Amino acid sequence: MAQQAVDVSDKIKLELYRLLCKTRMTEERIIALYRQGQIAGGVYTSRGVEATTVGAAYALEAQDYLFPIHRDLGAHLAKGQSVLNIFLQYLGKGNSLTKGKESGLHASDTSLNIIGNISHLGAMIPVAVGAGLGKAMQGEKVVALNFIGEGGSNIGDFHEGLNFAAVQNAPFVLVIENNQYAYSTPYHTGNRCEKLSDRAIGYGISGYQIDGTDVLAVYSVVKEAIERARNGGGPTLIECISMRMIGHSAHDDASYVDKDLLKSWQQKDPIANLEKKLLKANLVTKKQIDKIIKDLEKEIEDAVHEALAGPPPNPQLAYGGIYAE
Ligand SMILES: Cc1ncc(C[n+]2csc(CCOP(=O)(O)OP(=O)(O)O)c2C)c(N)n1
């Protein structure tokens, strides 16, 4: 396992904590709306994986590209997306990022350099490599960060994209969210290798396997990879180990996952563990934590209220925004 590569300031530690809480609380509210029948599409949950999505995306600068996948609510929020836009999107409102054409986290927001994924897993890897490379060819120091699951890591695009990134020395970072299950398929059913990060050797690039439940480790290692890529050091593959703590999506009860396995991973809850660390280091008090949670509750409830009142999609716009002008 790689050690923390970049020092994390106290201010960033607190912000990462706030973002982890924001992600979990927003997701819980989305699941409640789904159960109330307010959300028509799928809700792909990130409980247990938040430290990977938040830590990696927060390491990006504003000019960098984020290519998230279906489970990466924390990445959207860490790149600066508002909870209001997230709720509008899930509720399929006419004033959402996709104007109601899609309900879920596949949306782009070019104002934040977030490029939405198409549903086909792995397909965005070559696109993300191209985005970073294109900017480098224009002389700009922009890095593209993309996520992929451990299941999606076995798709052809993964190999083609990483090899192309390697030979072109593209400013590209690929984060594998190894959350143990690809829907109902356990890791060793789909992979014979022990470490997916070892695949980096085959492409001649740097590869790390890290604790994906430790947001400080994720932020630190990804930050170092991003800055290396920005300065001409080429791509990095980072495998983050975690556990998907609930179903593949809100419609899946994950009855195929061993309950004792889940119980053991409960010890590695990203939020509880960071909270303990921050309290122990006197970086925060219990009272300040209560205030963070209370403020988030208000922000989320205000956003839900506003989003529910949003307009329905406009049928006149059904074919708009599909092709570039
Ligand atoms: C090419 C392709 N095959 C199948 C699917 C359906 N699908 C969506 S998510 C998923 C599981 C992916 O598992 P993994 O890559 O490990 O990511 P995770 O969902 O665990 O985060 C599947 C099979 C898809 N979207 N694209």
How is this fold's topology laid out?
Elements: H1 10-35, H2 50-58, E1 65-67, H3 73-78, H4 83-90, H5 124-137, E2 144-149, H6 156-168, E3 172-178, E4 181-182, E5 185-186, H7 187-190, H8 199-203, E6 206-211, H9 215-230, E7 236-241, H10 259-266, H11 270-280, H12 286-308
Parallel strand pairs: 1-2, 2-3, 3-7, 6-7
Antiparallel strand pairs: 4-5
Helix pairs in contact: 1-2, 1-11, 1-12, 2-9, 4-12, 5-6
The structure holds thiamine diphosphate.
Walkthrough of the structure:
By secondary structure, the chain is α/β, with parallel strands linked by helices. The protein has one domain (10-309): Rossmann fold (3-Layer(aba) Sandwich). 44% of the residues lie in helices and 10% in strands. It has helices at 10-35, 50-58, 73-78, 83-90, 124-137, 156-168, 187-190, 199-203, 215-230, 259-266, 270-280, 286-308; strands at 65-67, 144-149, 172-178, 181-182, 185-186, 206-211, 236-241. A 5-stranded parallel sheet has the order 1-2-3-7-6, sandwiched between helices. A two-stranded antiparallel ribbon has the order 4-5. Strand 4 and strand 5 (185-186) form a beta hairpin. Helix 1 (10-35) packs antiparallel against helix 11, helix 1 crosses helix 12 (286-308) and helix 5 runs parallel beside helix 6. The mean pLDDT is 96. Thiamine diphosphate is lined by residues 70-71, 119-121, 149-152, 177, 179, 181-183, 244, 248.
